[in-house]
Description:
By secondary structure, the chain is mainly alpha-helical. It has three domains: 12-171, Orthogonal Bundle (Helix Hairpins); 210-330, no CATH class; 333-436, Helix Hairpins. Helix content is 72%, strand content 3%. It has a two-stranded antiparallel sheet with strand order 1-2. Helix 5 (145-212) crosses helix 11 (393-433). The radius of gyration is 43 Å and the shape is elongated. 19% of the residues are buried.
Amino acid sequence: MASRRRRSKVLRLTLLIKKGIAFLFSHIGLCALVVAYTMLGSVLFRAVEGPLEKEVRQLARDCRHQSVRRLWMITYEYNLYEEEWIDKVFDELLNFKRMLLRAVWKGYDARDYEENVQWTFSGAFLYSLSVITTIGYGNIACRTYFGKAATIGYAIIGIPLMLLFLTNIGDILAKMFRFLYRRAYRLKVEMSLWQKRRKVERLRQLASSAACEGVVLSRTPSPRPHQQHKVKRIHTFTAKDCQPPESYINDVRMAPRSSSLSEDQLGAVRQQRVRVKRTAMYDFAPNCLISLPQHVMRHVDLEGMRLEALIQRYEFEEFVLRESMEEKLNRVLVPLWLVLLTMLAYLSVGAVLFAIWERWDLLDSFYFCFVSLATIGFGDLFPGASMRDDGSAQEKLVITSLYLLFGMALIAMCFNLAQEEVVSKVVRLVSKLGFWKSESFEGG
Length: 444
């Protein structure tokens, strides 16, 4: 019984460890792991390098005070002997310079106030982030042997972890960006479908009014001998009242397209009184006294056929667009210009932010953001140089760290999206040139 209980406990512990490892390498787990690892590094490096920084600053203050006292003693003893005074002061200045260089080598940055130390929690956090992201500004570095050894071990574990995080989070952001772009594309297609439906409805209304309304002229004998008839009044007719013969329909269908009337002309025919000269006319039905002239009726029927053809064309386009929408959405790719525009917008936001915080020029701020996110890290510009006298300097350093972390993830997303677009264009180009087909044949 005891052995079974031990086995069950071991199995539970093993299962729990497996679940914990699986969670750590999930999307949320990787984000939490990177943040926790960076915070661990900030605590470690602050504990290792913080005391040395205070010690070096104290040493620099002591050297300065000692040099001032010695200069006063030299002046008090040799004030009447100019050459001896100059020699003594020169020697003392050389001694002070040596001590100052030694302090600078140990990390002295010409600041003596304890509240402006570099190795605060936020400063160490930024240093840890610059190590695992391989930016490496160089403005702050470990001076102790233990700190240097800790940096090596920290980077060996942190850099692969950061690469895994960037790959994972970049894939997630790419999927989200692709989803939003496809939603916008779907909205665009649905707007196009809605416009086509509106056009179809308008054309149907126009065709219905054109088919159900017409103009019929009654005739009376004319008193003049050279005129047989004259127009007396206008009647309305429907398609049931007057049906054209089959020969006339065929005649209209064979009519050229250039003889169509506009909507304004059709409205004028329906609404205004028409006076016509004597010409050949068709009698469509016994109850119709006289129809419109032949060329007008041809225009009216031809326009109705045109409207019906337009309706069918728009309905067919709507059907094809709706049927192929899902397939197009699955194959749609985020364009390269949109990826570059997103990255440019992020760099511009950072440039404005650091121009305000660091009092840099806008070009210098943009240069710093680009160099940092590209992991070049020259070190000529680095964050925090102008923040130390600010009360909210530590909060700004944390925001800077988050900006760099999210920016690296955004770059990974842009690479993911750009890779799809470039590969798609290359495959399309190769297939057009015929190389793809020839290579496939050779491989077969």
